[in-house]
Amino acid sequence: MKVTLAMKPAAKWFIPIEAESIVPKNFLSGTDLRVWRGNRELRLDEVFSVSVEGDADRAEDVEVVLSGDTFRLKRVGEYLDAGKITVLGGIGMHCGNFMSGGTIEIHGNADGWLGREMAGGTIVCRGDAADYCASGYRGGRKGMKGGTVEVFGRAGDFLAESLAGGTVIVHGDAGDMTGAEMRGGTLVVHGDCSRPAANMKDGSCYVYGTARGMIPTFKKIGTVQHDGRTLIRFSGDLANRGKGNLFVKGYEYLD
Amino acid sequence: MIVKDAVCPFCGCLCDDIEVEVEEGRVVAVTNACELGTTKFMGEKRMKNPILRVGDEWKDITYDEAVKYAADMLLAAERPLLYGWSGTHGEAQCVGVHMAELIHGVIDNTSSVCHGPSILAIQEVGHPGCTLGVVKNRADLVIYWGSNPIDAHPRHLSRYTRYAEGFFLENAFRDRKVIVVDVRKTESANIADEFIKIRPGGDYAVLSALRAIVQGKADTIPRTVAGVTREQLVRVANLCKSAKFGAVYFGLGLTMTQGKYKNIRNAIELVSELSRHTKFTISAMRGHYNVYGSNEVNTWMTGYPFGIDFSRGIAFYNPGETTAVDILARKECDAALIVGSDPAAHFPRKCLEHLAEIPVVQLDPYPNATTAFCNVQIPVAVTGIDAEGTAYRMDGVPIRTRRVLSSDYLSDEEVLARMYALMQEARER
């Protein structure tokens, strides 16, 4: 079954819409769903032109396709456990919160908290991801615990903050405090980033470019070969009695 | 008439030993207060009555008309923003929270642009703090990090640290060491025993290095960290470890620079590390006299300290999304009520562009920068001068501010209560 949701133009286009009801399994029982624009509850068809092709008995066979100006659509794919969501443009904050299975593919950019606290499944973002991609929630001890997030563009600040499991791959550069408070999992940044793995406890962080503002409390171990690259291996964060691994191609201290 | 033991409604020190001389309904002299507090007590040129913008003109309106305008504006909005709250008393803040819940709006206070990051850090790793009195009587080492008390909290030094007597210190001025950490040599650095000059953006690295040094891992630290030599860091770490009681006070130099709440988290974790060797505490140098109170009121009423979004009827909290600067910069609200703050003087231009496009009502005794963005401004009594109510000092101690003179102005609480009553009526219909 393929559900296509095309965003309708709205007078108050600037008010964000919370649409945690947009997950494949909800469409097995029809399209009578609700979303919220600010403090107003609206029917799905007041916000989208809805069309459904084919039918399905299980969420795995449902694909939801979102089109139009969806960059202010928040919480799409929250608690996703099966099926697929395809976003043709950009997507708003908290896409794929807490997801445990299934796939989300975003062709444009993703706003903050993409895949926050996810436990499983796959997110692919073809554009850039904003701050707190694959991170945790405020005050939380653990961020993402499993699954895979792959961003083909750049990522913002606090990428994979408190990462506890799973894999995060960013093909472009990442921002400041990349992998802060990491306690598990694997983070790979193909480009440059700033202050990677600050206060890390455990896990592995790879930076194939340059680590700027390198945290001074990582101990240099030596060089290693990884995927045909020569990387410098550090252990830390000593300040946090951490036993994590940080691999960088190059690094600069703020000295 | 002289009013003794008045409470100064300027900064988070909330000094409660002020003497105010009042003659013919005006403050004519202030004793004990600092320059900042004196200026606030002596303030004149208040707005006389509520005003409404009509085209390019201001029209005088009554309180009833102004209150009705605000209530209608907020009831019609899909995502109203209720911002400010740090420059008013707790009783008014309570009405604000009830109002936000009733109209399903977003309520945020000024801590989202000052010590919000401190609260985020505290939510991650806790707050080993204490009251100002404990520091005054016990601390033999005080560190001001990214704060400049001589200019911003002038009496903090004389009442609690550098120039204060201490019950458990024989000669407080001699026995108490003061360390100042900043990116430039401030006035406060001039009276410190040790000054650490950090390259801008380097606080986090220096804090990490100090934590490692306190653990005995100095040999892994590079020769200089953000412009600070390893020798100085080792000396400072030893000073801290050999103190009997240390207190760290940090300001916006730490909360609002690169890394923000991670800086504070690192500072708190340094304090935890030092507390394995001696007694150490850490506290924020809060700005507005009742910003702490606003966090308290919000927390006991909603569970969250600032940036609370009631759009869906329940409290949702996510600074960076539900905080005023972010909402305005992203144009995510369609009406704003401003109470006890002046966002137009402090927010980025992008935020003000949206503020200019939506209806805005402000409660403030004086014309200010935000007046230019208002549709309606309602003058109110000043808490601590012609209104009274509860405020929280920077260390979390509630102090009831006093009324030193009477006036015809309504207090924030009275104006907000009238607004809230109209909203309740409308919602019941």
Automatic annotation (TrEMBL), chain A:
Metabolic or biological pathway: One-carbon metabolism; methanogenesis from CO(2); 5,10-methenyl-5,6,7,8-tetrahydromethanopterin from CO(2): step 1/3
BP GO annotations: methanogenesis, from carbon dioxide
Protein name (database record): formylmethanofuran dehydrogenase
SUPFAM superfamilies the record matches: Alpha subunit of glutamate synthase, C-terminal domain
E.C. number: 1.2.7.12
GO molecular function, one term: formylmethanofuran dehydrogenase activity
Catalytic activity: N-formylmethanofuran + 2 oxidized [2Fe-2S]-[ferredoxin] + H2O = methanofuran + 2 reduced [2Fe-2S]-[ferredoxin] + CO2 + H(+)
InterPro entries per record: Formylmethanofuran_DH_suC, Glu_synth_asu_C_sf
TrEMBL record, chain B:
Recorded GO MF terms: formylmethanofuran dehydrogenase activity; NADH dehydrogenase activity
Annotated TM spans: none
CDD domains linked to this entry: MopB_FmdB-FwdB
Keywords of the record: Oxidoreductase
One BP term from GO: methanogenesis
Record's keyword annotation contains Transferase: no
One cellular-component annotation, GO: membrane
Name of the molecule in the record: Formylmethanofuran dehydrogenase
Native source organism of the sequence: Methanoculleus sediminis
Lineage: Archaea, Methanobacteriati, Methanobacteriota, Stenosarchaea group, Methanomicrobia
